[in-house]
């Protein structure tokens, strides 16, 4: 079981308010991703759930029990740190066995679980090595191994992939997702990388300045962002946000249109413009188009769309894909 | 051109290092040399002294006149005892200051260090009277207590700086893994800080071994360590350079050997690879 409930949780460091007040329900077995820009309080929130920081006010319930005052060890949660935080003086086997040893489990059971975890994570040949003799990806797997042997109520991941190189990151992303599918344990995952958030999450929690901007499935956030912040944060490249007469004519203060929802043509359309920088990625081409009276618009065109700097083009937004936002920044 | 300058600089630096090293070592060397001379030769001019005959006579006399092994055992018990007690107090103290610092942690550290600035003789009489009333005069227990208190600030400071180097996330990981505070300090912090704790231990043993103010003031015979053993040869009876030197050599030899053999261990780092 791993249902986690936050009730009016607040966190202050002296005078600085990091989390003003926050409510959140995490269901058993869910993969929840906290995402937001750096300094938005996502790591602090995770550490509050872990018990590594004290809550200034409010309650944290784990499976219905009040865990607000519980020490980290008693909460039944396992955490994977950004730096892996392996014990450098212990072998891989001892690292993975440490939480079981702390739980005073008997030797045979410890060995059985460690061997099992090592097999799942492809670490069997490295059990007698020390962390210093492992690569980054292997260290990451040891950290995950140390978490899974405990069979915790929930896993907490604090930006676990940010120290890995790009190729390894994609691999580990898949491995963690697969792990979630086989264990079906609640996972809370903190990242600033929205690709990780979109690909891994059942539910994304978008945080900004300690507040929840929106909670929803990846596609819900993509299709109907609740406000300008989420609209600008989710999606890559970013949504084009246009204020002024063009927005007013559609009954909004700001309108948003994603690069992939702008049709581009050389012959005619709604907004005439001039091509600035074009980025050819092979599969896609991203064009930055200057349209009079608007900020530079990013457009996603086909991979082989051949245009040059200074070419004249017309853009037409797909009418059902236009997001409208009111004066308070909320979606209309 | 540049290579020659580098070579010359290396030569100068090497010579300077050897000179400084020799200057520091010279008094010990001179003491050892004198200890192998007769009393008559020992007070001769340096060159004549060096040219005179070598003899073990001083060592033999020191052996017969006083009980080396008792003083030695007292020194061992007092220096090791005070060091272990100091470590037992300092490890949790340094843990608290390194990993759960408060607003006043820096002030506390400075205050502890400031106690070392006070001249020891300033508290001699109160402490002496206290020891007399508590029956601690001339006891090993008494000296262990005094030397623990005297060296505690340095021990805490050294451990604090070593502990600061250990990433806090590793201790947090241990806490998440279910470690109690005791297991966290015992299984994670202490093994990771072994090089630091070892060098603190060694330095403190040396300081306690050589401590000559309190050991001379608070002991006479039963608990007298090697400092008393040396001092007994610089008595009003007159100058006995050779015997004094022999006693000194015998007193410093154990600690010198200990230092020599533990050099390597002190510099070995264990924390590499913990955090990328």
From TrEMBL, chain A:
* Pfam name, any one: ABC_tran
Q: Which UniProt keywords apply?
A: ATP-binding, Nucleotide-binding, Transport
Gene3D superfamilies per the UniProt record, alphabetical: 2.40.50.100, Nucleic acid-binding proteins, P-loop containing nucleotide triphosphate hydrolases
* InterPro entries noted in UniProt: AAA+_ATPase, ABC_transporter-like_ATP-bd, ABC_transporter-like_CS, ABC_transpr_MalK-like, ABC_transpr_MalK/UgpC-like, Mo/tungstate-bd_C_term_dom, NA-bd_OB-fold, P-loop_NTPase
Q: Which SUPFAM superfamilies match?
A: MOP-like (SSF50331), P-loop containing nucleoside triphosphate hydrolases (SSF52540)
Q: Which GO terms describe its molecular function?
A: ABC-type maltose transporter activity; ATP binding; ATP hydrolysis activity
UniProt cross-references to CDD domains, sorted A to Z: ABC_MalK_N (cd03301)
User: Matching PROSITE patterns, A to Z?
Assistant: ABC_TRANSPORTER_1, ABC_TRANSPORTER_2
Domain ABC transporter spans what residues? 4-234
| Any one GO cellular component localisation term in the record | ATP-binding cassette (ABC) transporter complex, substrate-binding subunit-containing
Please state which protein family the record places this protein in.
Belongs to the ABC transporter superfamily.
What is this protein called in UniProt?
Sorbitol ABC transporter ATP-binding protein /mannitol ABC transporter ATP-binding protein
Q: Which organism is it from?
A: Cereibacter ovatus
From TrEMBL, chain B:
- What do the Gene Ontology cellular component annotations say? plasma membrane
Superkingdom as given in the UniProt entry: Bacteria
Q: Which residues form the ABC transmembrane type-1 domain?
A: 72-262
The record, for PROSITE patterns, names: ABC_TM1 (PS50928)
Q: Name one GO biological process term.
A: transmembrane transport
**Which membrane topology describes this protein?**
Multi-pass membrane protein
Q: Which Pfam families match?
A: BPD_transp_1
Query: Which residue ranges run through the membrane?
Result: 12-36, 76-96, 108-131, 143-163, 184-209, 240-261
Does the keyword Cell membrane belong to this entry? yes
Region forming the signal peptide = none
Q: What SUPFAM superfamilies does the entry give?
A: MetI-like (SSF161098)
Name by which UniProt lists this protein: Sorbitol ABC transporter membrane protein /mannitol ABC transporter membrane protein
Q: Which organism is it from?
A: Cereibacter ovatus
């Amino acid at each position: 079981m791993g249902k986690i409930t936050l009730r009016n949780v607040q966190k202050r460091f002296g005078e600085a308010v990091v989390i003003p007040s926050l409510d959140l329900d995490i269901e058993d077995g869910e993969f929840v991703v906290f995402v937001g820009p750096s300094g938005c309080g996502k790591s602090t929130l995770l550490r509050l759930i872990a018990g590594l920081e004290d809550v200034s006010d409010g309650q944290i319930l784990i499976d219905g029990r009040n865990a607000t005052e519980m020490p980290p060890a008693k909460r039944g949660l396992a955490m994977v740190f950004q730096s892996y935080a392996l014990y450098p003086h212990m072998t891989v086997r001892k690292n993975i066995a440490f939480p079981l040893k702390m739980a005073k489990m008997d030797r045979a059971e410890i060995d059985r679980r460690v061997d099992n975890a090592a097999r799942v994570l492809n670490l069997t040949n490295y059990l007698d090595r020390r962390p210093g003799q492992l690569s980054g990806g292997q260290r990451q797997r040891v950290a995950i191994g140390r978490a899974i042997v405990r069979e915790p109520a929930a896993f907490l991941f604090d930006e676990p992939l940010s120290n890995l190189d790009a190729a390894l990151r994609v691999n580990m992303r898949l491995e963690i997702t697969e792990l979630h599918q086989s264990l079906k344990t609640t996972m809370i995952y903190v990242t600033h990388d929205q690709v990780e958030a979109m690909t891994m999450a059942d539910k994304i929690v978008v945080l900004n300045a300690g507040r929840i901007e929106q909670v929803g499935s990846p596609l819900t956030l993509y299709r109907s962002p609740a406000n300008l912040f989420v609209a600008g944060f989710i999606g890559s490249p970013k949504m084009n946000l246009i204020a002024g007469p063009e927005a007013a004519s559609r009954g909004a203060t700001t309108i948003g249109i994603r690069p992939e929802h702008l049709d581009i043509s050389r012959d005619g359309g709604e907004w005439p413009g001039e091509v600035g920088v074009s980025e050819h990625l092979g599969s896609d081409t991203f064009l930055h188009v200057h349209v009079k009276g608007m900020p530079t618009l990013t457009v996603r065109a086909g991979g082989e769309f051949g245009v040059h700097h200074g070419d004249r083009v017309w853009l037409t937004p797909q009418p059902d894909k236009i997001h409208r936002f009111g004066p308070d920044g909320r979606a209309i | 051109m540049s290579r020659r300058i580098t070579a010359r600089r290396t030569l100068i630096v090497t010579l300077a290092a050897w000179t400084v090293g020799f200057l520091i070592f010279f008094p010990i060397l001179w003491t050892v040399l004198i200890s192998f001379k007769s009393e008559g030769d020992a007070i001769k001019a340096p060159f004549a002294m060096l040219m005179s005959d070598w003899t073990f006579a001083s060592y033999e006399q020191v052996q017969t006149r006083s009980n080396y092994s008792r003083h030695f055992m007292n020194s061992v018990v007092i220096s090791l005892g005070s060091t272990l007690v100091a470590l037992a107090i300092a490890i949790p103290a340094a843990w608290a200051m390194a990993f759960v610092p408060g607003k006043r942690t820096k002030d506390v550290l400075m205050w502890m260090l400031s106690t070392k600035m006070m001249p020891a003789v300033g508290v001699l009489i109160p402490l002496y009277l206290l020891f007399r009333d508590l029956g601690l005069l001339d006891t090993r227990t008494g000296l262990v207590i005094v030397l623990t208190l005297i060296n505690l600030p340095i021990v805490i400071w050294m451990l604090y700086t070593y502990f600061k180097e250990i990433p806090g996330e590793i201790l947090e990981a241990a806490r998440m893994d279910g470690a109690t505070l005791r297991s966290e300090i015992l299984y994670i912090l202490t093994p990771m800080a072994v090089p630091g704790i070892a060098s603190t231990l060694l330095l403190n043993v040396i300081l306690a071994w050589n401590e000559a103010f309190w050991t001379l003031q608070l002991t006479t015979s039963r608990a007298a360590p090697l400092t008393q053993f040396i001092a007994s040869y610089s008595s009003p009876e007159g100058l006995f350079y050779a015997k004094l030197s022999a006693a000194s050599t015998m007193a410093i030899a154990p600690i010198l050997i200990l230092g020599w053999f533990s050099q390597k261990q002190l510099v070995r780092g264990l924390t590499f690879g913990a955090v990328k």
